Automatic annotation (TrEMBL):
Belongs to the queuine tRNA-ribosyltransferase family. It comes from Muricoprocola aceti. Keywords: Glycosyltransferase, Metal-binding, Queuosine biosynthesis, Transferase, tRNA processing, Zinc. The keyword tRNA processing applies. This is Queuine tRNA-ribosyltransferase. The gene is tgt. Pathway: tRNA modification; tRNA-queuosine biosynthesis.
């Protein structure tokens, strides 16, 4: 059940009940592609840094270790020792990112595995079956994510096929949830809005999928090469046409600034690899811009990454020490940076929820954005 607790302009503060616990939104989902956050971060760490939802990747877990193995081991929650909600994406984005290894047809997509080159077929039914085996809390519908520069005719045909695939996903999930050996018979399904940068196609698609009464709705196919301004324009156009009584998820986004702008346009759910990827390269987020800890100016800096931050890195270690670890290629350096960045994102979402509750979101957003532009 999704319940809006407060609004401030278009910004929504809500709670979303699932079989694995209630999600407070707006929320940032921490990305653990292959059932682990890159950078040696354990699920016990995720509990400590305030993670609400973990996101894993259907395609990657199907390839390795195999979704049937995960099912035999009791599902993804048991496999990775995580008792809170998990969202699995559908494999649809790999249709986009593995452009050289795929062939798209009405029945689904033919891949070559990026691991060993073996042939894989994935359609709506297969994606639902894999996600049911993984037993995630929320499954994403199988879609095609057309390039932001694809021509209008291609995008329209692609979106029409995504709608047909969505209906097949819904039917198959209903069947899987009714089976006696299904680990999570309460698995939810989110549909995905596509349409590249064409507002009219996006709106029409939003209206079509809204009629299917799904558990939630995502805006996909953004943050794939178009400008931030284009992304905000599409959100302004399409979000009002998605059901307001269901959670809205902006897929693969983004920077802290992107998240602040997305919340302002009515988005509930976000995910992105930026905090972990940047952390592994020594780039850390603060309220005064991003720092590169490889810089020589931090060699003798005995202050934490950010004063007042309560993450495990800032509570115990200095910039100088973390810089030394990174330079020495010690894994701990990467790990501390990733923990800090994920804590920063999770804590920012807490602040966002509080600001909406107080009716002060506009002021909060303006102050936060001004700080990010300082860049020390």
């Amino acid at each position: 059940m999704y319940q809006i607790l407060a609004t401030d302009g278009k910004a929504k503060r809500a709670s979303f009940e699932t079989v694995h616990g209630t999600i407070q939104t707006p929320v940032f989902m921490n990305v653990g592609t292959a059932a682990a956050i890159k950078g040696a971060v354990a699920t016990t760490d995720l509990q400590e840094i305030g993670t609400q939802v973990e996101l894993s990747n259907t395609y990657h877990l199907h390839v390795r270790p195999g979704d049937k193995i995960v099912k035999q081991l009791g599902g993804l929650h048991k496999f990775m020792n995580w008792d809170k909600p998990i969202l699995t994406d559908s494999g649809g984005f790999q249709v986009f990112s593995l452009a050289g290894l795929r062939k798209i047809k009405e029945e689904g997509v033919y891949f070559h595995s990026h691991v060993d080159g073996r042939k894989i077929f994935m359609g709506p039914e297969e994606s639902m079956q894999i996600q049911s085996n993984l037993a995630s809390t929320i499954a994403m519908a199988f879609d095609e994510c057309p390039s932001s520069v694809a021509d209008r005719d291609y995008v329209r045909k692609s979106v029409d096929r995504t709608t047909r695939w969505l209906k097949r996903c819904k039917t198959e999930m209903a069947r899987l949830n009714s089976l006696p050996d299904t680990i999570n018979p309460n698995q939810m399904l989110f549909g995905i809005n596509q349409g590249a940068v064409y507002e009219d196609i996006r709106i029409e698609h939003a209206q079509q999928i809204a009629e299917l009464d799904l558990d939630g709705y995502a805006v996909g196919g953004l943050a794939v090469g178009e400008s931030h301004e284009e992304m905000y324009r599409i959100l302004d156009a399409v979000v009002p046409y998605l059901p307001q009584n269901k959670p809205t998820y902006l897929m693969g986004v983004g920077t802290p600034a992107n998240i602040l702008e997305g919340v302002d346009r009515g988005i509930d759910f976000f995910d992105c690899v930026y905090p972990s990827r940047n952390g592994r390269h020594g780039h850390v987020y603060t309220n005064h811009g991003k720092l590169n800890l490889f810089n020589a100016k931090y060699e003798l800096d005995d202050s934490p990454i950010e004063d007042g931050c309560q993450c495990p890195a800032c509570r115990h270690y200095s910039r100088a020490y973390i810089r030394h670890l990174l330079k020495a290629k010690e894994m701990l350096g990467m790990r501390l940076c990733v923990l800090h960045n994920l804590y920063f994102y999770n804590h920012m979402m807490e602040e966002i929820r509080e600001a909406i509750e107080k009716g002060e979101y506009k002021q909060y957003k303006a102050k936060k954005l001004a700080g990010f532009e300082e860049t020390t």
